[in-house]
Amino acid sequence: MAAAKAVHKKTTRPGAAGPEELQQQDGLMPTKVSLTLNGEAVSTEVDSRTLLVELIRENFIKTGTHVGCDTSQCGACVVHVDGRSVKSCTMLALQAEGADIRTIEGVATDGELHPMQEAFREHHGLQCGYCTPGMIMSALDLVKNNPDPDDREIREWLEGNLCRCTGYQNIVRAVKAGAEAMRSGE
Amino acid sequence: MIKNGMGAAVRRKEDYRFITGNGQYVDDINRPNQVYAYIVRSPVAHARLASVDTAAARAVPGVVAVLTGADMATDGIGGLPCGWGIHNKDGSPMAEPGHPPLAAEVVRYVGDQVAVVIAESKAIARDASELVEVDYDELPAVAGLVAASADGAALVWDEAPGNICYDWEIGDQAATEAAFASAKQIASIDVVNNRLIANAMEPRSAIGEYDSGKDEHTLYTTSQNPHVIRLLMGAFVMGIPEHKLRVIAPDVGGGFGSKIFHYAEEAIVTWAAKKIKRPIKWTAERSESFISDAHGRDHVTHAEMAMDENGIFVGLRVSTRANLGAYLSTFGPSVPTYLYATLLAGTYKTPAIYAEVKGMFTNTVPVDAYRGAGRPEASYLLERLVDRAAKVAGLDPIEIRRRNFIQPDEFPYQTPVALEYDTGDYGAAVDKALELGDYDSFDKRKAESAGRGKLRGIGISTYIEACGLAPSNIAGALGARAGLYEAGTVRVNPTGSVTVLTGSHSHGQGHETTFAQLVTEALGVDFDLVEIVHGDTGKVPFGMGTYGSRSAAVGGVALVNALEKIRTKAKKIAAHLLEASEEDIEFKEGQLTVAGTDKAVAFSDVAMAAYVPHNYPLETLEPGLEETAFYDPKNFTFPAGCHICEVEIDPDTGVVDVVSFTAADDFGRVINPMIVEGQVHGGVAQGIGQALYEQCIYDESGQLMSGSLMDYCLPKADNIPDFSVTTSVTPCTHNVLGVKGCGEAGAIGAPPAVINAVLNALAKYEVDDIQMPATPERVWRAIQSAAK
């Protein structure tokens, strides 16, 4: 090995809690949270630092909502909270107390696909499928507020949903077609 | 045409589960009694591990174990193997240092694995990881090609003087020098191929599980090739025989090459699961992906093209330095050599080519294949150089290409850099692209843009790639340490439904649909009665997986060969049932008919007869209807095409807007045009990403500055235009399907087309170079410095 000036760097985080403190931190005390998930009243206990997306995926095992990043860029975790699209990695589970949460699993009714879901399949708006639930949940919120979006509006709205497979064109087509089907009440 | 057969734009079978949230990715899987792993990673680029103290972390309630490289060494766990050996110019082998899954003595990049904390929850594992006390004796680091090549540079490895892993060459140096001596004009160029990170939307994840009763290991992993992982990890790292190791790659959320490789975390969870006798899940956080997924590209190249007085290419010489990172990833050494320099002939008849490549170690994340893998680097270099040659020769960029194209009647064509192209018609693709892109009226659009104060430019690339990896014997002679065939099994079930077991793996490509189309085409079985099984070594007999645009061209052909065996056996059974001669049986659209008669039996009845062989030729034919084929291709396939990009630049801000993109690609025959178009869209988007947005940046000390999605710019929906896509078809001559592969073309053809368009837009400022990504800052600076 080439000669080197030794610089010692201890990497334990300064001020990190010791083992006993970790056990006793308030944050680790379970707290009850109750909410409506896809129309069903549910409740469970979580640590106060638990994210909404963790609650959905790990406590309620609704794994259609995905985690694609840790900086709230990708949008794979978008769900509806009281009717609005929200990146579920940006909310604490406890903030969802009493909320009405809808995930991708709650979009189809009685096995009947929602027109927006149909449109994604019809227009090849997905490849690996990982970003798809977030895309669909985001698109549904767009159409709720703007029933007839043009391409530019769709692309701008989806700026917070990353897809690495499709190049977006077929997603834009799908959202447009889904919006049209929703307008015509299909 | 058979309904839902070859050539139909069938909607995808797999979509239902994805659009309803029922996909099952690795992180969606939870095993009984599962615990969670968090990896302690080096925060410095190069250091000796003076001590790793795990006592405090182990004392945290809920922590199950904390394991280090020393524990791994004690257990005799091997290093991560490299799957491709390269030789130096003098015939000696490349430097091939070890790659322990957990470092025991020295860490060599930010992100290198130091220890694993295993706990009852992710949160506890992560908290406790902060109590692992590591004493790093820092060593000098080299974080890029320039630093690694400098005189007296610090060494990543003592056994690699000058940080050179290999110094490799291809082509005829003497003939090339002679061509340059006789040249009338020479164009030269220096290019950097920017370092990229694949960023599949699903972060990597792995679950290790051990069944002590059976002494069996199971690994769930985000892999493009589970059988390859079983082979590499079982044989080289863990010492587990194949029958005791099952590798499952379920739904995988994109790969783009980054999920080919055998990663440390797969070995760590497999090893640790046996030690603690509980299943262990590890899932990367995105920021962790940035410092642990293999990166792509990262070349620095000087090249020169020699021409005669008419702009005919007479010689090409290329000198490249390629960054391999701190360790050799699974296929890292092959990417800047056999997947790069062998493509330097491009679509042209350049008679003499010589290329030399130095593979360099640096204190950065290992570099390996990313969508295109070597071919985008070749295409970018060549297509930029050809545009420059056009300028030197005073020719239109399209004219110089046409003058130098290999012509349709010149195939098979042996290039001076090892490959033999089987077929192609490069001029036809150009014609199609020019028409679809309305090339002739560009000046009108340019004037219209100018009226709005914008600079409009147009750029072209005519790329080629070598896909369908590969003939095993040729790859082996070039250094590959594995075979590159594919396997497929067709299991006709008693009632006539069909289960296909394929070694190819879909992580977005849609094999469950396209492969089912091949079954429907061959057997006439209803599309809905076909199931494609992939991604599980416990179900699929064997396979080499999906990368290098090989699924249709290798896996698809293996499947078709197995289907042909089924057809042959079905005819024998039908001949018996119909009391006819086998030669007289026609098999069409699910019916087996005695030629010229109305005597027929349905394929489903043949299947039933094969499994209930009461009336069956048992003396000459086995019961059952299941066949397997292994297919090793005779040659690579050679997709090629023409991409045209138009950009608009705002001269005040330097912002580049891609306003249109046209692709005319020759992928040979197409199984499902909807899926092929989708592959082109995605590839072009990643190519535009490389050209305009994406850049992996290390600082001098080896810290990754672009280490999250806040710092590394992936193309977003409003950065990318609608694409115009078409195909021109010359069927591959050496596989029965006539297919070539389409997965990587967009990422290969797009970057030079975009940059050529940017330079065309900036022509009036006499800007003759701009590096990728052409960010607003770079473009603005180029305009400002030219204006002075």
Shape of chain B: globular
Distance between the termini of chain B: 64 Å
Q: Return the average pLDDT of chain B rounded to an integer.
A: 97
Number of helices of chain A: 6
CATH domain fold name of the largest domain in chain A:
Ubiquitin-like (UB roll)
- What kind of assembly state do the chains in view correspond to? heterodimer
Question: Please, could you describe this protein's structure?
Answer:
The complex is a heterodimer of chains A (about 190) and B (about 800). Chain A is α+β, with helices and mostly antiparallel strands and about 190 residues long. In chain A, about 30% of the residues lie in helices and about 15% in strands. Chain A folds into 2 domains: about 30-105, Beta-grasp domain (Ubiquitin-like (UB roll)), CATH 3.10.20; about 115-185, DNA polymerase, domain 1 (Orthogonal Bundle). Chain A contains 6 helices and 6 strands; from the N terminus they run βαββαβββαααα. Chain A has a 5-stranded mixed β-sheet with strand order 3-2-6-4-5, sandwiched between helices. In chain A, α4 (about 130-145) crosses α6 (about 170-185). The radius of gyration of chain B is 27 Å and the shape is globular. In chain B, about 30% of the residues lie in helices and about 25% in strands. Chains A and B meet through β1, α1, α3, α4 and α5 of A and α1, β2, α4, β6 and α18 of B. β1 of chain A pairs antiparallel with β6 (about 135-140) of chain B, so a sheet runs across the interface.
